[in-house]
């Protein structure tokens, strides 16, 4: 019986060790855990103990280094100039919503031509891509004012600045509210129809004048941010008549066009006429003179403001430090609908300036000392604060 059993019995196989679930996702996890337990209980020899400690430091050190690096970069991020990446000459393919698209960029003399194409007869996928791009762009410029400047006869985006609250521009409050109400009525959706029914060009012009540093440019930027408009800054001293006409033709329907130091055009026109009389160069036309000197003639400026080909729907703001130098034709009603004087800061304005600064400097109780100090100061430009 025993012989039969011993002869017929099969060899005994040991059961395979059960694999931990953690070992499936993290191979070697069980071995590392066992070593850590022996290390903590002190069962390993000194050499193995040292090796385990070094391994732990190397393993945790990389994460600590990455965390500290990100912390330092985030702290000093404001000192770094952000990088901007854009595709260069050539073409490449990419996938968007399971569709194969082709992007091509070709550099010309002064600009780039970008084209996006797809396979098929429907443009629906391209419209969806451009719609997503537009939504992403609007998200980036949210609560910002986009500033455009001219370069080589074209408008180019210069910067996107945070919207400056209109309350931070210190000026006569009644005048400020009147200007804002005027602009709000002009930008109303029903205003265009009102202008069209009466045969009036749909344009609005403002002249901001006063001593330097009184907030004329700051007010223009705040107005653009208040009504969520892009602002186009035009420097008349760096262009000629032809480029002036071209730049005005490129303006979008709703925007703010800012002409700073508008008295430069009148001054240049006067100097040109005096030079022509003294040198007896009557054969030289005004366009040639302005082109050679890099200044805009007054006639070209007037034609750009309200000529036959002038743009409608825009909000024109002109600034000057010397209103007495301006030609009467430039500031007549129809071209300039409202003139706004920016005065030097008096006692009331200086109190508002210092109080606004005191609200920023938290913990400093300066309100009680504002009135005596403001009364001792003579009128001064608000930019000196």
Automatic annotation (TrEMBL):
It comes from the Eukaryota. It is a single-pass membrane protein. SUPFAM superfamilies: P-loop containing nucleoside triphosphate hydrolases. InterPro entries: AAA+_ATPase (IPR003593), ATPase_AAA_core (IPR003959), ATPase_AAA_CS (IPR003960), BCS1_N (IPR014851), Mitochondrial_chaperone_BCS1 (IPR050747), P-loop_NTPase (IPR027417). One of its GO terms (molecular function) is ATP hydrolysis activity. Its main location: mitochondrion. Residues 27-169 form the BCS1 N-terminal domain. Pfam families: AAA (PF00004), BCS1_N (PF08740). It is found in: Mitochondrion inner membrane. GO terms for cellular component: mitochondrial inner membrane. Residues 202-346 form the AAA+ ATPase domain. PROSITE patterns: AAA. Keywords: ATP-binding, Membrane, Mitochondrion, Mitochondrion inner membrane, Nucleotide-binding. Residues 268-293 are annotated as: Disordered. Belongs to the AAA ATPase family. BCS1 subfamily. This is Mitochondrial chaperone BCS1. It comes from Ajellomyces capsulatus (Darling's disease fungus).
């Amino acid at each position: 019986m025993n012989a039969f059993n011993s002869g017929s019995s099969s060899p005994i196989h040991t059961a395979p060790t059960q694999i931990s679930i953690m070992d499936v996702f993290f191979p070697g996890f069980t071995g590392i855990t066992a070593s850590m337990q022996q290390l903590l209980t002190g069962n390993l020899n000194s050499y193995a103990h040292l090796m385990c400690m070094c391994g732990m430091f190397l393993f945790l050190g990389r994460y600590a280094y990455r965390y500290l690096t990100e912390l330092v970069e985030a702290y000093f991020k404001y000192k770094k100039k952000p990088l901007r990446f854009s595709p260069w000459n050539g073409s490449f393919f990419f996938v968007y919503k399971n569709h194969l698209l082709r992007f091509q960029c070709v550099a010309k003399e002064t600009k780039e031509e970008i084209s996006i194409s797809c396979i098929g007869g429907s443009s629906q996928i391209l419209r969806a891509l451009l719609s997503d791009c537009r939504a992403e762009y609007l998200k980036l410029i949210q609560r910002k004012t986009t500033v455009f400047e001219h370069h080589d006869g074209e408008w180019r985006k210069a910067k996107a600045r945070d919207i400056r609250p209109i309350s931070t521009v210190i000026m006569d409050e009644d005048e400020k509210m009147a200007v804002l109400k005027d602009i709000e009525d002009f930008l109303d959706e029903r205003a265009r129809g009102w202008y069209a029914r009466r045969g009036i060009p749909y344009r609005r012009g403002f002249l901001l004048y006063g001593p330097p540093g009184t907030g004329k440019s700051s007010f223009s930027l705040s107005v653009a941010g208040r009504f969520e408009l892009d602002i186009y800054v035009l420097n008349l001293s760096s262009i000629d008549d032809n480029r002036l006409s071209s730049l005005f033709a490129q303006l979008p329907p709703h925007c703010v066009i800012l002409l700073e130091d508008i008295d430069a055009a009148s001054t240049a026109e006067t100097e040109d006429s005096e030079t022509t009389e003294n040198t007896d160069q009557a054969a030289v036309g005004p366009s040639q003179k302005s082109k050679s000197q890099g200044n805009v003639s007054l006639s070209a400026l007037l034609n750009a403001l309200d000529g036959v080909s002038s743009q409608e729907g825009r909000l024109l703001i002109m600034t000057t430090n010397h209103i007495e130098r301006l030609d009467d034709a430039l500031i007549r009603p129809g071209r300039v609908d409202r003139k706004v004087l920016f005065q030097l800061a008096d006692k009331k304005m200086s109190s508002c300036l210092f109080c606004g600064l005191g609200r920023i400097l938290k913990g400093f109780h300066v309100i009680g000392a504002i009135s005596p100090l403001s009364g001792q100061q003579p009128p001064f430009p608000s930019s000196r604060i």
